[in-house]
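An instance noted here:
***
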Amino acid sequence: MTPKERVHAALRKEPVDRVPIFMWFHPDTAKLLATELSIPASGLSDAFGDDVHQTWVCNNQAMEGIVHEHDGEGHTDVWGIEWVKSGPFNQITYEPLKDATPDEIRAYQYPRDHRDELFIPMQAVMETAGDYFIGCDVSPCLFEMLCRLCGMENAILCLADDPELASHILAGSGAFSREMAIEACERYPLDWLWTGDDVGGQNGMIMSPATWRKLIAPHLAPIMAVGKERGLWVAYHSCGGIRPIIPDLIEMGLDVLNPVQSNCPGMDPLELKAEYGDDLAFMGGVDTQDLLPNGTSDDVKKECERLIEGMTGDGGGYILAASHTIPPETPFDNIFALYDAAGVSEELIRDRAADIRARESA
């Protein structure tokens, strides 16, 4: 099966030759693995056999997709947010609406004149569209954009103290994400539309489910509808404990939930599968906080085999992935054990890496 065929079949709960895989490595992990395999970090997806190829076209590109070599280097994105590299990631050092007046907030303009620039990262993804399952990520859509524009503390206070103003910003952010989603669907032959915001924390939701339903959900539903109306799978990402809103997401038309942060309350993957598996597919669930960095390779393989068996017992509906980026303290043996559980051996990975090296030197 091609990767595209594999993912589509799995999401339809049809037989596949192996469980589909879509893994994210912490930037430092990527560097370590690239050195171990003597390939560029950009080649890891091919070496390890990811079935999904996608990229960001909204503000996550500014956070993760623009890479600076040295700490202290930075940029201002087209939203007016300033970023500076600190450690492996870009961190926000200036939020354009943090000290803005209500009138200034209402006058804020989203970067509609920069759409062509924002879609540039999709060009590389589309080079593999024939064989791979292709996604376009229009997140962060709502709450995270409120945080990035206003600062997280101000954003949370705004939700509580001035919901009308918060709703104005959320409506603007949601409208922009929806426009980008529509244009992405018009420009590219996508397989899924990727949406999301981190609205969950380690112990539960950052806001009450009632607040989410009142202020976030009305602006999220039209974004998801873009994919549903075009016959695409719709995926949603939120870290943390978000179980209270899963039925709401299903009602909106959600197809794939990510990343299933398994050590948060209510987020046990097998429990979610049992309760919502008729309506949802899942991507994630492999614990990155304890299992991968601290377990043995046998622990990792056995737990991943248990997870795969439990999540695909009804025929499919699962994409193997970690519950977050795989951290750099994870032993290589554990990473190889994770893939081995899915039927992708270390030998195969190293053979693919050798092929990449040969192409690079040709």
Notes: Residues 163-187 form the longest helix (25 residues). The CA atoms of residues 162 and 242 lie 24 Å apart.
